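Hi P.,

Sorry for the delay on this. The queue was packed all week, but I finally got your sequence through. Input first:
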Amino acid sequence: MTAIEVTSFGYLHDASPVAHLTVDLRQHFRDPHVSPELRCMTARDELVRTTVMGTPGVTELVSATALAVAAFASGPSAGTVTVAGGCAGGRHRAPTFALALADRLRTVGFTVTVTHRDLDKDVVQR
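Then the structure:
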């Protein structure tokens, strides 16, 4: 089965990585960064993951993205399919989305690697 590479990143740190499919989570989903309680946490924290996944539309976006990845993977010359998910700082929404997408893809048999480009970078002051 086709290998899948999922990368989370923050647009405020650098340009988006090259990918077959890039999902921009900045405009449509509430940023946990605005909550002082969550600001210094990351997607490694259960409260952040629960908050992001509880945001209306996120679960549906994970499902839709998984379908898009499967479509890319079914192509006649499909190699590794790359997906990038970005938010502002790369610490909350994008890595949570990446982990959820990877879990969804693994349940249908894909081999998935996940890289969090900006998860360990300092909190962006804005």
